[in-house]
Batch of 2 targets.
Target 1
Amino acid sequence: KTRRDFIKISTAGAGAAAISFKALGSKGFGLFESKTEGPVSDEDLTPYPTYCEVCFWKCAAWAYVDKNGTIRKVVGNKNDPHCNGRLCPRGTGGVGMVYDEDRLKTPLIRDTRKDGTQYFREATWDEALNKVADKMKEVKEKYGPEAFGLFNHGTPGGHFHHLLRAYGSESNAEPAFANCRGPRSSAYFSTFGAYVGSPECTDIRDTKCLVLIGSHLGENMHNSQVQEMSDAIDNGATIITVDPRFSTAAAHSNHWLPIKPSTDIALLMAWIHVLIYEGLYDKDYVEQYTFGLDYLKDHVKNMTPEWAYGITTIEPEEIRRTARAMADAAPAVIIHPGRHVVWYGDDTQRGRAMAILTALLGSWGKRGGLYFPEGVSVPAYPHPHFPEPKWTWKDWNAGRYPLATMGITTEALKASIPRYNYKHQLKAWLVAGTNLPLSMPDKPLFKEAADSVEFIAVMDTMPMDITGYADVIFPEATYLERYDVIRSAANREPNIALRMPAIEPKYDSKPGWWIAKQIGERLGLHDYFNYDDYSEVIDWQLKQLGTSLEEMKKIGVKKYPRKTGPLYLGDGEDYDFNTTTGKIELYSVDFADHGFDPIPNYTKHPEPPQNFYRLIYGRAPMHTFSRTSNNPHLSDLMSENSVWVNPKVADLWGLKNGQEVWLKNQDDAITSFPVKVRVTERIRWDSVYMVHGFGHKNKKLSRAFGKGAADTEMITNVAVDPIMGGTGMRGNFITFLTEDPALEEKEVKA
Ligand code: MGD
Ligand code: SF4
């Protein structure tokens, strides 16, 4: 028994009335109707501007509300470059987050019954806020404010980040860095002195050749990117997809390279070899803008397609053909930088290889390649300087991972466990908008950390698995019920988008900004929260940007002229890159200084033992991570995941389509739930594939509980990237159990 038992939320006497809300023609994602009302026309609806929170593309949208205060539909804002007026299925179904009857409805506090069992009881806001504020005061006195850590993701996390900084801590980490795009940031920054950002600055609409390396656009649904890809296909662009699985993108490709997993760097280096040794690279561009061609040429001398064939299983001629196709299209060619890129622990180096290839093709800063994005800088609402913490997340790393630019989640976990003996330890957590049990690899590490800290407060909209570890739970209002930070992501045209409430928060939920402010006030931090309503902050910011809340309520999105110059480099134009040499670094001076390979090398990774298969995982177009699995509309489209198994392997094991199996990994971890087999040629025989985000363990998620299996449970081996601390997750191998392991255990005991 642990200090903090995982509680499957069931409150004494929670039970708010079930909502009579039903999707009309649920597959169509047209209009959602409540049971008691018939269809309405647009004239009877009031539109409110928002931007979507179902994934992090943040498409701007209009939420249409009827006279009874029900949101009838959410549609894309036509003026928004993230969506061009069209939302993806998840965005349209986002309204299901509001009307999900499983939502968190009141603040909850962990309590212990007379018999010692723990449970959550309903609490008033005052009681819950006081409890968190008191704990923050106590931690500050006992250990210093730095010992209070924050795990955050998405916009809600931003408000808590502000609170934490005002309180004196910068001990925060979000999965979006170390579990997602961190290696890409380090790779592109060290090569070009710039980031690719989100939305990525890929000029897909004008490209002639799109190279996808483990990026399954189409299944990995990022709205405008997928729209542009579909236009590029219509315009006859060459699509090259490198994936051990025949993905949706592969099905639309001219070339599908079913690479042996974990060998991508060898393929990339062979492509670089062909471009250089066949003289196909952009000589003027490389001469003018890059540093280190001679080193690179020497480095890849023996990295021939024949060499790569032995590693990747891709035919040498196919490697040459595809390299030539890229060169033919250059500079209108995109080596897509990918997004969730933490695979094998050498991911920054793989990113570097992709960036170097991009440079040789002369496509950075070129039409149809990667453009120069520009964003709007939103001024901070005036507040006193944040206090200087004595230590920050950087100190957990103790000199390791020198290129980490954000807190590393696994380091935050280790800093929470006394036996790791970190000099700077975390004693308590705030968790905002991240479901750590399903997003963190190495579940035993997460559990030990959660059990070690003295206190956990979670702010979520749903009773996700993470809430079972909390001492205090704050029910946040969903994105359609609250004001939030102004969206200002960089794009071709600088732009901003407003999120305002379309309806009042349901139940006793409150917006994240309000919760953060209330805690701040209790800690005597009023000057950092010097407003009554967040709309005042937004209005002030908008006025600095030459508009107002009043105007933005009518338009939702505002575009601004560019100030930083054109989207693309002019021919032969002088350009100073923000790197050590001022050039695009084919040879990274920074990496050499830190003792890392200045030019990427292929290293061999462990292979599956006999009877085991490499676990690879990805996304489905109707779901985002674990956050959407219980959404009534999206679960209606896909309610569980399956495990893709090659027919040869299925034969060997006697597995049939639709049969339920449990998965067991190399460390004897077993999935909590069975998962259905999908027998398909679309996956290589040495690997299996699953969609991430299923296998929820909290019974309060009435649709998602026990549906499918969690890939995360199988990811106990993490290959850490020494450059920036990324958590490589694809070095895990699974085998099949065809009998219920729990039954087996019972039989043994009997
Ligand atoms: P989700 O699983 O979607 O994302 O990991 P997470 O950030 O944990 O969980 C989001 C949580 O936020 C949910 O609990 C949801 O209910 C809550 N939430 C949603 N909307 C709101 C809101 O408005 N307010 C509040 N307070 N809460 C809200 C994502 C992370 O996972 C990322 S970025 C990547 S790329 C990795 N992907 C990945 C993978 O592909 N496979 C495996 N095995 N692990 C992965 N981990 C990483
Ligand atoms: Fe929402 Fe889809 Fe846009 Fe993501 S891509 S923000 S889910 S509409």
Target 2
Amino acid sequence: MSHVLVFGSANMDVVARVPRLPLPGETLAASSLAHVPGGKGANQAVAAARFGAPCELAGALGKDDHGRSLAAFLDREGIATGRLARVEGPSGLALIAIDAEGENQIIVVAGANAQAQAPDLAPVGGGPRPVALAQFELPVDEVERFLLAARRAGWLSLLNAAPALAEATRLVALPDILIVNETELAVFAGGRVPAGVDEAAALAARLPRKGAMATVVTLGADGVVALVGEAVLHVPAQVVPVVDTVGAGDCFCGVLAAALAEGQDLEAALRTAVAAAGLAVQRPGAADAMPLRAQVLAQLA
Ligand code: ADP
Ligand code: NA
């Protein structure tokens, strides 16, 4: 199996449970508080590592307690952190309030993530190509450098263009495989949010691909639709009891990268990633909801 290098964010999610979300100017008492490792980069790296890929997370942590906790968490998950810089100031942080109905309010503080610098990529030798995977929770210029470096070095590059940043539209043509959800697709392709598989495929066809392998759109309970060359491929999701879809997209991206790194072809890798994401939605949380390789393979059997 080849390896997966994720260039992405790591955040400490500080999660307070509240009876209802506070109004402007209001103070409310929380019923509980939890610190949970998060950030799209870390979540996707955990998904890839649990699927069995040798995995590294590059980016930046602060020299604070949260940074130390995040590094220890990534170590426990078997994720290499040698190129996760330790910079002055706080680590990335998300302040999350969740009410009794599960509705939330989230404030993200970029912290150290804003200082992340794209790592160098060694030129590819023989064998399956290593996979480079990025998202948009790091500076856009650095993500662009990373994708260009991946192309020069012959790596297979994946971009999960999330969150949707209109100013990052120029990057969506850079990776070998672009992954977006319906909302992000609407922003980057310049249309309304598609309803269903056919509308999503039609809208995705408007995105520039420059000969890249595929554009992949995740559709929640409808699974994914992928434009691969001239073909449109729909992989439906399993019908499962949903506990919380937080992290489903991150699970999909990380496992897709890992499956490609082990040499699966794109269609097989999409099916593997959909199976994994269908398991993640049955468990609470994001990073902690990522399934193990054996669970994903059992789901596919
Ligand atoms: P995001 O969270 O980024 O918006 P999606 O909601 O599209 O991403 O979910 C990503 C993937 O997770 C989907 O393509 C699907 O495979 C899986 N998934 C999400 N929601 C469900 C669901 N309700 N039932 C089964 N699978 C789901
Ligand atoms: Na989940």
